Write a sequence for this structure.
C-alpha cells in the first residue's frame, strides 16, 4: 500500500503493519533502519500526540532497544520529512502528532494533555490577515495551539 493510499482515509490509516511502516518511511525518503521501524511502528498504531520520552519508554518496554538520542534524532527526522507534525508547547514540551494533516490543537495546561481541535483545518478559527506578507514568500505551514485551563 502506498503513502497516498495510507493517507487518503484518516480512519483507515491506523494501525499500520510493519511492512506498511517500511513503505511509509521509504516514500518519505527515510531509510527504514531497525530502530526507525520500531519507533514508527509504535507511533502509527493509533492517532496520538506523544512526547519523545514516552516513545522511548514504550518502545523499550515492548522489547526493542533504542537509546534516548536515537528517539530524539528519529523524531526530528520524521518531523523534517513531514511524516509527523512537531507541536511545540513551550521550550520544555514538544509533542509529535502522528496525524500530519494540518489541523489545530488544544493543550490543557492543567492536565498536560494535547488533543486535536475537532473540525479544524487551518482556517476555522478566526481570520488571519496575511496580505502584508512580503510578496516573495509563501505560507508553508501554520501551527495553532490553544492553551486552556479548567475554570
Amino acid at each position: 500500500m502506498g503513502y497516498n493510499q495510507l493517507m487518503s482515509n484518516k480512519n483507515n490509516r491506523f494501525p499500520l503493519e510493519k511492512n506498511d511502516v517500511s513503505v511509509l518511511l521509504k516514500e518519505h525518503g527515510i531509510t527504514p533502519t531497525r530502530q526507525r521501524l520500531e519507533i514508527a511502528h509504535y507511533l502509527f498504531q493509533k492517532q496520538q500526540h506523544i512526547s519523545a520520552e514516552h516513545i522511548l519508554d514504550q518502545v523499550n518496554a515492548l522489547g526493542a532497544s533504542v537509546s534516548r538520542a536515537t528517539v530524539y534524532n528519529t523524531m526530528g527526522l520524521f518531523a523534517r520529512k513531514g511524516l509527523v507534525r512537531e507541536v511545540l508547547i513551550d521550550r520544555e514540551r514538544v509533542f509529535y502528532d502522528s496525524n500530519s494533516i494540518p489541523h489545530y490543537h488544544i493543550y490543557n495546561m492543567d492536565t498536560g494533555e494535547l488533543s486535536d481541535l475537532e473540525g479544524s483545518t487551518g482556517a476555522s478559527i478566526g481570520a488571519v490577515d496575511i496580505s502584508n506578507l512580503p510578496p516573495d514568500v509563501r505560507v508553508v505551514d501554520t501551527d495553532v495551539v490553544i492553551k486552556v485551563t479548567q475554570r
Remarks:
- Strands lie at 49-50, 85-90, 93-97, 105-108, 113-116, 145-148.
- Residues 68-80 form the longest helix (13 residues).
- The CA atoms of residues 4 and 94 lie 27 Å apart.
